[in-house]
Design a protein that fits this description.
Length: 1475
Amino acid sequence: MSNSYSVKAGDDLKIDVPFKGIPEPEVSWKKDGAELKETTRVSFLTSNNSSLITIRNTTREESGNYEITLTNTVGRKSAIIAVVILDKPGPPGAIKVDEVNADYISLSWDPPLYDGGCPISNYVVEKRDTTTTTWKTVSSTVARTSIKVPRLTQGTEYQFRIAAENRFGMSHAVESASVVAQYPFETPGPPTTLHVAQATKSFMLVTWNEPASDGGSPIIGYHLEMKDYSSIRWTKTNRGRLISETEFKVNGVEESLQYEFRVAAENIAGVGPYSKATEPIAARDPCDPPANLTVTDITRSSISLTWSKPENDGGAKVTGYIVDRRELPDGCWLKCNFTNLQDTCYDIEGLTEDIQYDFRVIAKNSAGVLSEPSQCTGAVTVKDNVVLPRVVLDNKYKKLVVVKAGDVLRIDADISGRPRPVISWSKDGERIEIKARIEITSTHTTTTLLVRDTIRRDSGQYTVTVQNIAGTRSLSVNCKVLDRPGPSSGPLHVTGLTAEKCTLTWGPPQENGGAEILRYIVEKCETSRVTWTSVYEDTKATTCKVTGLRKGREYIFRIKAVNEYGEGEALESEPTKATDPFTVPAAPTDVDVTSITSETMTICWRRPESDGGSSISGYVIEKREKSGMLWVQVNTKPVNDLRVKASNLCEGCEYEYRVYAENVAGSSPPSIPCKLTKAEDPQFLPSPPAKPKVIDSTKTSVTLSWNKPLFDGGAAITGYCVEYKRTDEEDWFVSVSNTENTESTVVGLTPGAEYIFVVKSINKIGVSEPSPPTDPQAAEDREEEPQFNISNEMRKTLLVKDGSSFTLTVPFSGKPVPNVMWDKADVDLRVRASIHTTDTVTSITVEQATRDDSGKYTVTLQNVAGKVTCTLNVRVLDSPGPPCRVAVKDVTKSSATVAWDTPENEGGAAVTNYLVDIREVNNKGWTRVTDSCPRLTYRLSDLQEGGVYYFRVTGENQYGIGLPAETKYGAMITEKPSPPQTIEVTEVTKESVSLSWIKPENDGGSRITSYRVDALENGQDKWVKCGVTKTVHFVVYDLKEATQYFFRVRAENHAGFSDPTEMALPVLVKGQLEPPEMNMNKFPDNMVYVRAGSNLKCQIPLTGKPAPKISLSKDDVVLKSTMRFNSEVTPEYLIISLRESTATDSGRYDICASNTSGASRSFVTIVVLDRPSAPVGPIGMSEVTEDSVSLTWLPPRYDGGSPVTNYIITKRETTNGDWTEVSSVVVKCTMKIMKLITGLEYQFRIRAENRYGISEYIDSATVRVDLNYTVPESPSPPTVTSVTRESVTVAWTEPTWNGGRPAVGYHLQMKDKNSILWQTVNKTVIRATHFKVTNVIVAGLIYEFKVAAENAAGCSPLSKISDAVLAVDACEPPTNVRITHIRKSSVRLEWLNPTYDGGSKVTGYLVEKKEGERDRWTKANLTNVSDTHYTVTELNECVVYEFRVAAKNAAGSVSDPSVTAGPVMCVDTDDYQGD
């Protein structure tokens, strides 16, 4: 026996070991030291002298050392047998990457642990680009366990796999990790400090600094990219050439577009990452600074500046300015305006007296570009400078200023004075208010009055007044407006009035518009119309005569004066009616009626004796029935003739008529009515009948017929006269002198002769004219179509008993005598029956009738005039004929149903019973199954499965048993199969659908021979056969693309087709597309976990056709594959790989899978299990006492994938560096540290801990353990609530923080604004938040106040200074504020002067408005209002407003607002006349 066995994998292994021993030893087997047990593949057979082990279907696992042990009472003996299974080797060991370069990679690996029982002949090395799934062979003949893979592409990520091969085959391949072919040094880092150094509308200069790291290789250049801010596409600016410097000028930018830039460095290893993009920069020229900055006014606390707009706005409109100031000599620049400033002037207030300041202005355009600062004003000292005001007008205003109406009146004046004077304009002594046409604009040096669309009332004297504390100056300008004249002097008198004319007189206009009146225009208008008609266009006098008026119409006249500038306003008259002195005419006479019919009458009359002084213009006629009460007008319009025809009368009614005459004055009284007249027609001879018709003729006679005449002459037709004559003669003969019929026969005619005939109508008046003659008619026999003369009784079905005889007799007529033919379907009656025919009768006789003689007998008559057919029914009473359509259905494996239809010939009586017989195919004799079956089906059971049977059926009626009918083919006793199961669509193309299904559960006892596939187009109702197949799959071709189809399948066996299996939903025929779909079911909450430092491989099921493309992003940044992180798409999975994971890899990864069918989005959250990040600070410290402090903090932003279990808190005194643990079991994010030493300063450190470790720490700020309260914050700046000449009441609010202890009171200080010395007002602590200052107030001085709060820790800092207040008595508000006029865009207000002016004259009023439900009051007047009325303009129509007024006196005191006027809605009212 051999100690070594070799067998090829898959073969059976048999080891037969002979042995001997007495007594017979026990046998046991082991493999590799483990006991070998018997299984389905391993069996043992032991006899008294041998042991056989058999292993079936060996695999490589059966290789090893098998040990057989023999044991008996004498001893123990073992032997080892080596078994080698010859197979392909196992996979090589893990692949190691020994060296990586830009174009090659060196690999090594360990030999397979299992060589397959024979030496390894070679190794097969393959590679693939990780962006593809295709493997390419590097070498298939590698003999060693290492290889250098050359010709790689720099920067490409590769994966390698290696398989071992021996003579039995190739092993499974082992794959390497992904590795990038690159230089051993890295690409450089991103450049730093990238910014746009200069931007214009045509180019941008971009600069940057070198990267912090060059990657180990010198930088060889840079790549600069740019993109439009609204785009996502980056474009290279250096066009393929490297940028060697750290700046680049980008040309070709589009004006006003915003651009972003990014830059990347390149070394020999490649292009490094791009820097962060710059902020969006617009391609615009820089905005120039403002020019001509000038100081226009200086006071002891303010300065006024003006400047000019920038010459170049940078391509965008200048939208505002920023004013800066600084104290000289070394102050910093501070912003003066905190709201957008659009004007080119600004008043800077709140300056310190006698301090020197410098000012500058910066412009800002709509693109957000700030200009460089303007030139500074230089040193300006803040102090009062009083200069008398002055007004200078141009010499042209010294003369009379003449303006044409509609033009613009403009008066410009130069002004000066310090402080800046107040400017006011007036006209003829009244202050000018700004309106839609009037505009007043003023600057520091000029003022302009602008009056648009001038009118006559704008003529007068205009005065401009300037005033400041130094004095007042005024200048006047006289102006004359040349305009159209005013209205003529009235009233407009209308005299000499008639129905057609009148005379108008008026006076010249009081205002001639500055020019001579050239002419007058006279117009008229009927009051019932809106259009004016010209009467005279060029009349010089102030009187005129108007003609062409209409009587009874009411008119208005108007006059317009005309000068060289146009037509003036119109002067209108009162409404005037045009009437005459005429009277109505007398009534017409002699009214009579003529020309009477049943529907019309003609009425005549004579003219009236008097026309009333005006000619008759027409007549109006009225009628009345005898039985009626109302008169009805006959004519719709007056008639000028002395007769009129009345129509539409009722026949037989009696009418009377009367007539009115009309002239220009109106209608006359009615005439005397005429006598009653009856509406009836006169009687006449009747009209003749229409042309007679010849309806029959013989050799000696002609029969005529005709219709009644259309007109009977007003009397009933009493008869007709018939006359005739020969066509070759002139004499007429009377056939019938008077007949009431409309049909007559003329006899006694000559055979063959031609005649014509006429008919005359007769009424009581006489005989009418003859009718039109007939066509010539010869006296001869006529041709007649044949017809049957049978009764209804003959048309009924004839019943004949079997064996009897019957005869059918049919009378008929026709000229000439028609030919007679008898017919019956499928029977030659000339043989079966006897036929006898005369000129008027035909008959047929059938002897010994049978059931076959039943049916329809047809007789046909035919002559030259036509053809006619008649059908007679015969039923022979006999036993039935054979049943029809005997068939077998509903066959099962043990039964069948025979079905048939009733016999075509039931023998004259209904079949009441059927007899059913059966015979086997091999048996010639019939067996009666039943002789009593009243139905048309019969089910036979207990038949032999698979047997073939024939069936026979015989009918029976009341006359006996009929003829039998049997099935043509034998029926196999097997049932039809059950329907196929679960039809499915396996593939769809644009013209075909592939179907598959499962065989029926039951084949019906007979094998399935085929399957039939049908299709139904969606929307149709007819199934179409697609084909027959013997398999369970089928492809349906030639389908319409983009059409939906239903499909069904039926199985067929010897019994027939099964029920169909149909698809529930239609299939759309189109190219197979499947949108991507990711299945995240096996990832709860879409989360995967990995320990820090470990590798992660996440396989997500992914489907889609075509194969989807994957995009991964994290924090909205698209991720690219690297050596640590990459993704791979297989036909079934998306595989995400992460190597050496760190905490920064944690987070949500968004996945987008897309193909041509659509896109699918999902995400996976990677949780890296690590120690947590440091707690989030800063550490809050509160409740600081003498020996404790409370700490609060926030949990770590990253918990390491595991909940934080506790926090560790340590402390140290700031005087040493030793940290002492306070607690390591803190669970919450707060803790109170106790037992601290009062007066010492502490710092605290906190770390978080989870199951994976302890986080980094955060340190608190230092805190001194001391008293827990301090002095309060400052109160709010005081506000003045009341002021008089002798006292000032101020108020303030409590500090927002009291320092930890309640405030015990306040201290108030005050000073004269011109002083620098503050004095305390209160002698004791002020407990309230208000205080009235008395005794120290000097009337007329300006005061400022500030306040401090006090608590147990001391006094707070002083508050900010209050607004300055003048110590004068306050002016009271205006009274009786009311709304006097309302228009859709303006409201006029009026009020009374204040009852008390505060000791100084009221110099003006402030008008405020509030819109709707808003709480904010806005100023309505932009200039000073000195009058007690004001029109608020530029309001919105249909909006509700409220108004109030405040008074201002010469001392500068402004009163409280008045009582509110309103609310009121802006709509037009009729009583508004303007200002």
